[in-house]
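Lab meeting prep.
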Amino acid sequence: MAYRIILRRDTSVNWIQNNPVLLSGEPGYETDTGKFKIGDGQSNWIDVDYYIGLAGPTGSAGPTGPSIDLTAVDSHIIPATGGVYDLGATGGYSWRDLYLSGNTMYLGDAKISAAGSLVAMDSMLVGGPTGDGGVALSAADGYLTVNGNRIAGSTNVTYAELVSAIEEETLTVGAYYNITDFKTCYDQPDYNYNGEPITTGNYKEAEISPIIVLAISPNSLASDAYQPEWPNDNIKYDVSFSRTEVTDNPAFGRITYRKDPQGNAFDYDFREVLFKRYDAYVSNGVYEGTVTITNTEDNTIGIVTGTNTSFENFSADDIIGILKNDAGGDIITYYEIIEIADDTNMLVRGRTINAVSNARLVVASSLLEGMSWKQSNIISNISDYEYPTFQFYGRCFNNISLNNTEYTEYREDILFLLPNNVFRNADEEFPSVYVDNLFGSRFRNNTFNDDCDANIIRDDFYNNIITNDFDHNTINDTFRDNIIDCDFTHNIVNGSFYENHFGDDDSDDFDFNIIDGSFYRNFFTAANSFS
């Protein structure tokens, strides 16, 4: 039987388009060129060289044709006929990179140009014809147009220019305005030991962070705003806040509400505002005997007389506390000892001397650094600190203060527009967690320094310092003037609960209490749990 061998064959174009891998030793023949290749079992068609046989005799020279030396181009390269010739071809015949010293390319009637490091086009079509789901984009006068409809864009203005446009009623309704010089400016709340406002040195300015607002009439703006630095925050903005409320310094409007992606929502710009803090003291023990303290003329030196006391166990510069036995003010006032005469007589000093009689002397067991919203009574303690609302922001979730009216309008009885809340971090290595706290009404002057979870407080909640877990509490009354240096968990308080200073001298907690009454002026300390 006779066998016929037929080579694998195709046109040169089809070989390039299909680009197969020939087996090792397998020939592939181009029917239109007469050339062929032999595969190596690995390379695609276009990567295999044509087979070249032995050289034959040299033929006679033909006429010299034209040539182009692209390394010596000194003029424009212009095709002989427009719209006929290509640069490169399909099937792998492509130029690699294109380098241009100019800044413009033309694709038919469309122009693409460079604007610094950006690419500029007058318009573009995305996704095919507009009738088939494509989108035509263009921009003019700071606005983006989609399929002929103008959408969000913004006009850059300074705060002064925006206020002028509002006064002159020249805002464009539906237009967005980017306030390029916006920054949070505020009067930082500050208080002396007696809780009286300090009104010098309060003015603070944050860094510039532009904010975008929407005109809803020729002279008014929508309350919702947008801040490019924090694109996922929900923000409300008040353009009328042009001067701070206490020091009368310049402001650029005011953020009156901010909610972040972690669910934290407060009625001020908690990302920028810093609150002032001072040192405080806490007591967990009581000395024997009672004391009486009287003022001197300058009201900073106190004469302390004791009954059944042992003052000689103290030293000059020691800090002691005197537990008050009447209403008003701190339940414990701390003083620095100046001089000890004997076991029943000594001199102390403080920013204020609170005269009391037959009071108990208490142990100043711990210094709470940076925990107090007001100055310490200790004159030699001049330390002060600044903290944001969340000292360790990454572990704070769903903390909400529903005080919308409280911090919107200036009130003389409060003086400062801002509250004074700081969620302190107890440990840099093991940061504190603040989760799911809901605070109502006034909620002022508090500092937390550990886990503070799932509390609902819908009234005043004033002047508290809490340095441990404060969990699962529902407090529907004032609950003010407390320093809590124990865990204090699972409590329900539906009464006033005034002026308490809690504290263990060990790690035990104050747990599982239900207080359904006033529970006034208590100072509690113990060596075990009070449950």
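Slide two material, second protein:
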Amino acid sequence: MTPQIENRRSTLLLALAFLAMVVGGTVNLVLDAPIRWTSPHALFEITTIVFGFGLALYLLSGWRGASRALARTRRELGARKEERDAWRRSARKVLDGLAREIDAQFRRWELTPAEREVALLLIKGHSHKKIADLTGRSERTARQHAGAVYRKAGLAGRAELAAFFLEDLMLPEAELAEEGGESDAPPGSLVRRGVLHGMPLLLLLAASWGACGRSAPESGAGSGTAGAASAPASLPDTVRVAEPGLYPEGVEYDPARGRFLVGSVTRGTVTAVRDDGSHAALVRDTAAPTTMGLQVAGGRLYVARSDVAAAFDSTVEGRARLGVYDLATGRLLRGVELGPLWPDGRHFANDVVVDSAGNAYITDSLSPVVYRVSADGTAGVFAHDTVLGGGFGLNGIELDRAGDLLVAVDTRRALYRIPVAHPDSLSRVRIGEPLRVDGMVRRPDGDLVAVATTFPEGGDPRTELVELSSRDGWRSAEVVARAPLDRTAGPTTVALRAGVPYVIHSHITGLGGDEPVRTFEIVKIPLHRSR
């Protein structure tokens, strides 16, 4: 029984009790047949009767009003339920389709089942503590899963995660004009002004997402076989970029927006490229003429900026600069000059990697140093050693699963591990064959995928895509997969998309020719483990 019904019944019983008191008092007064109606006894009983009757009428009036209000509320609730059920029936197909798309996007981000579960709860607005309670995990684990979601999606946090699915949601403009007249706000701003305006929609999606998402098979992201067998069938084999003279050396994939990002050794730009080859400049910063390594992290784009002339002309001092940009707009957030930190050398910032705390590490190919730029913009020399130099030395850089650095040194044809806690204790990774590694990327399972020049015994050097695996924290490693690359196309580095490697063809050998190279390719290169 609800409290409202209980209160109504109590009011009715109290009113009836007062009416009984009035009847009893009246009978008693008549039977007494007082000689004087103005006697104290008679006046007391008359007053009691009148007071009881008035109070009974008051209570009965309240009971009647409460009954009417309750009936009205029941009618309104019934109407709302009918309206809600009708909306759900009419929107079911749309909701089911959107739920599948959300789950598909989670898989494109290569989220594990646990991360997908946490991502949905984050969208629903739950705190890390609440997520821990709902999933039976510790709060620390919930935070780690949340961080992994943001990192894999290339988003800054919970607000951007919700905005990713809601930013284009808006009411039909014609209906808005009919109901509220013209607005000064731009189309869609009713939603974009606040992500939470759209949150109820995602709450309604939770049940249907759970049904279609948790039972689906894993995408295979991060598997040692490159995920080629389980990757989406719609992945393109080749993306062609028709932009004469671009010469893109670096490539990164932005999973949140479904686009590749490529640099330019001649223009210092970063270009966003769609699967159909359509492209547009995202970053037009002219602070340095060359863009090399790219890294998407936390809703930002980190770019190693240089001057390509320094790689070919020893009289050019070169540049080493880190550019940090808004991933959505390309707006410059921070520019940090690194060359002055090592004033005795020439400079060529080559590659960049960002850790979970927002610290960026940058290699300098013409000086034996690795720079670090903290999340607040503080820059310094993180590691330096003569083994990292000698001609064109440092090249690609990555983080292993423990958070330590792996750097490629061209002159040594080797990889080196640099412990973040003790950068002076760098050591060479024992591989068993010489490798001159250019760009590289780490899989979720810890393997490295790299564009490398290999040196087979008794044969000519080859350009290959290799996958390296380590079982001892990168004290040693072995090549577990390899695929040939077209050396004449100038392959330089690799990005992962749904677990599948894509290699950029920079055509850098055509730089300085009579006619600029007109088309550049981003090519899917499946890898298969050696048996």
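Talking points for slide two:
The domain at 109-166+191-214 is CATH 1.10.10.10 (Arc Repressor Mutant, subunit A).
The chain has a mean pLDDT of 82.
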